[in-house]
Amino acid sequence: MKALQWQGVNKLAVGEVPDPEIRNAGDIIVKVNRTVTCGSDLHLLGGYIPFMEKGDVLGHEFVGEVVETGPDVRNHQVGDQVVVSSFIACGKCWFCEQRLFSLCDNGNTNPAITETLWGQAPGGCFGYSHAMGGNPGSHAQWWAGPGRVYRGDRDGGAHSWPAVPLRPGQAAASPADRPAGGGPRRDSRLP
Asked: Residue ranges of the Alcohol dehydrogenase-like N-terminal domain (predicted)?
């Protein structure tokens, strides 16, 4: 399949990469219908985020259609329209139980890199350097990964609002000057 690949600082190219495949029983394969360039993709392109390798597939904000499911996937079926969260989360660790999916203990296969750089290990992220797991991103024809994705065809940020554990008197903000921030803010109706 064709994918947008990082070739070095400020260098991208469309190239051939292997078709995705189901590797774990809970995986799905998604035909990418729409993908966007996030502001953080520009950090990767510019060389500001370390541990990129030539040929890495960028992208972590996208929507698409489920085209294949692993045998343990119960919440999706072929034909479902889905929004894929950029973070990889197991759904079972303490952080996931607290709905802090971006901090999942099991989502990043290279936690030592980010612990050394940033003093903590966030969860894994699709298309966001080997410091975040080295997982292929969404700037491709198809994507494969865990089947914990949202139904629908809206921006992933918009689907995140129900996950924000707000209590009376608390507030949430999504900065509109960020590439992904404006859409969720316009679409959301917080109680």
From this structure: 25-125
Task: Give 118-174 pLDDT, tens digit per residue.
Answer: 888 888 899 999 999 999 999 999 999 887 666 654 444 444 444 445 566 655 444
152 φ/ψ sector (left φ>0, alpha ψ -120 to 50, else beta)? left
Q: Indicate the domain borders of the chain.
A: 2-159
Full DSSP string of 92-104:
-SHHHHTT-GGG-
* Contact criterion met (CB below 8 Å) for 107 and 88: yes
- Sorted by sequence, the CB contacts under 8 Å of residue 112 that are 6+ apart come out as 121
Q: Please tell me the pTM assigned to this model.
A: 0.75
CATH code, residues 2-159: 3.90.180.10
Nearest to 143 by CA among 74, 72, 88: 88
